[in-house]
């Protein structure tokens, strides 16, 4: 993309999470250990749900997709971040930056919509149990899955389209460890006020509205559970509490990053680090540790392979 009397930016220099070599080494070791332990756990969740005929309910169908989305999401930032920790020059091409930005918002947007779908699933299961099998039939589940993937794609393509219209003629230093909208926009050599407003609306406002909608829906569900005397009350309460924890972990940092105007804040990098590297790997594991059926099935699967 050319700009008159200017040099076209072909690559961006990533300044990284920190300039301290000691902190970089510490974070490198922690991420590597965390990555090697938790990532296989996510794939184990997917394998367990796929292989156990008893885990065919929509809840487990969507949990398997959450594990897949989070595992895929973790490949966008973490591997390159680990490589950059041991590299002298942290450089990413313009095309590589746009690609990373696209998949970051494609999978992130899809996951946000998946949490909305999971909230809808719990609402029907707990508040309208007699209609559950009719509403959440396999065809409806696949239709919802297709819709959330399409929604994530539309959200991401809007971000990329707005970025591609901006001229970049230098400087080319991104004050972060990955490419994301707030940092990239700052490097454009033109007035970006309108673009920033569109970005805040597309990412920030939509994230905030989804977050408030999800909290409201779970408040309704929890009130319904409190007034219930059924045997599954404690199980439903545990499931919904887990969902709320995941919502806070995912939407909290996203709201912080995308709802304020694109100016640098001291906590930006730390919040982005947890949002893009740590929390995506933890989400499915949190679900699993609080779900007795998945834990039992996983133990059976592991014991079967150990015996073999």
From TrEMBL:
Membrane topology: Multi-pass membrane protein
Keyword set, alphabetical order: Cell membrane, G-protein coupled receptor, Membrane, Olfaction, Receptor, Sensory transduction, Transducer, Transmembrane, Transmembrane helix
Function: Putative odorant or sperm cell receptor.
Family classification: Belongs to the G-protein coupled receptor 1 family.
Pfam families: 7tm_4 (PF13853)
Entry annotated with the keyword Transmembrane helix: yes
Record-level Gene Ontology MF annotations: G protein-coupled receptor activity; olfactory receptor activity
Membrane-crossing segments per the record: 23-47, 59-78, 98-120, 141-164, 205-225, 237-258, 270-289
Top-rank lineage group of the source organism: Eukaryota
Record localization: Cell membrane; Membrane
G-protein coupled receptors family 1 profile domain residues: 41-287
One GO cellular component term noted in the UniProt record for this chain: plasma membrane
InterPro entries per record: GPCR_Rhodpsn, GPCR_Rhodpsn_7TM, Olfact_rcpt, Olfactory_Receptors
Protein name per its UniProtKB record: Olfactory receptor
